[in-house]
Amino acid sequence: HGGNMSKFTLPNGLKVGDKLFNLIEVDEIRGKHQNMLVNPNPKTPIDFVEPILTDLIIDLTNTEGESALEQVSKKDLILNKLPIQDIQFIMVKVREVSYGPDYLMDMVCPHCDKKNNARLDLAGLEVFPPEVKLEADKLILPKENITFKYSHLTFGHVMKMVLEEGDSKFTDEMMTTLAS
Question: Out of 3, 51, 86, 128, which could bridge 28 as a Cys pair, Cβ 3.0 to 4.6 Å?
Fold first, then answer.
């Protein structure tokens, strides 16, 4: 490593006991990662997202500087521990660190077929914290005052669904997030 590393605060983070690990440090995409993304035959997003993020996640710490990676492997963190929202956030931040905050898009109006150019400022995207309160494995809806057992939807859960459903659209969207 040693490229353009940056730290960001995850929307959710990883709770271990009473400690919240939500400060992520990521590195920029390099040639070997780009080669993984252009591989003509990735079977699933696990084939490229997990190894790329394993390489690009430098650390996950709490505000005291303690590392979650002393207690959990990067692979387990990516596949089973972090909510899918955090994985998506990390991918956007890796893209921002690697290629800059400007995300240029060409869109076609579905009504008139006019081509439009748009620019999205990735650094300016507002991230909203969850509107629900999490306590260990419970989810509390404050307005309704309802509590029930809760488990984050993880990248591993999503990949299991993709493999069962055979949905290639999700695979294409994951590749686009990292590569463009």
Answer: 3
State the DSSP H helix or E strand holding residue 144, giving kind and residue range, or none if neither.
none
Interhelix angle 168-179/84-99, rounded to 10 degrees, is 40
Buried b (16+ CB within 10 A) or exposed e, 10-32: bebbbbeeeebbbbbbbbbbeee
Decide which of 81 and 170 is more confident. Answer: 81
What 3-state class would DSSP assign to 31? Answer: helix
H or E stretch at 100: none
Q: How far apart are CA 34 and CA 31, in angstroms?
A: 5
**pLDDT tens for each residue of 43-64:** 666 678 888 899 999 999 999 9
